[in-house]
Amino acid sequence: MTADTSSVSAFLAGVKRSTGLTPSVKTETVTESKEVKKWVDNYLGMGEWIMDQSIAIMGSSAWFERKR
């Protein structure tokens, strides 16, 4: 379950970086609960961290090369 949620979070981070689209966490569209909003923000932040670490590891590996 943890790997699945981490993968989804990292996927959403990649979508955000490549398209600028991100899930809306406005209070009126999700919930009135500040705790739920905080949890969603932390969840999406985890995806950003996973994406950053993955890029750093791949960037220093001989198995990957950067093409633009």
Task: Name a few traits of the molecule.
single chain; 3 helices; 0% strand; mainly alpha; 68 residues; elongated
Protein described:
The model has no long low-confidence stretch (mean pLDDT 83). The chain is mostly helical and 68 residues long. It is elongated and about 45 Å long. α1 crosses α3.
Q: Which value, in Å, is the CA radius of gyration?
A: 14 Å
Q: For the residues shown, what is the average pLDDT? A: 83
What are the low-pLDDT stretches, counting only 5+ consecutive residues below 50? none
Classify the secondary structure makeup into a structural class: mainly alpha
Strand content: under 5%
Strand segment tally = 0
Helix content: over 70%
Contiguous helical run count: 3
Biggest sheet details: none
Q: Sketch the topology as an H/E string, one letter per element.
A: HHH
* Envelope shape: elongated
How would you summarize what this structure contains?
The chain has helices at 2-19, 27-30, 34-59.
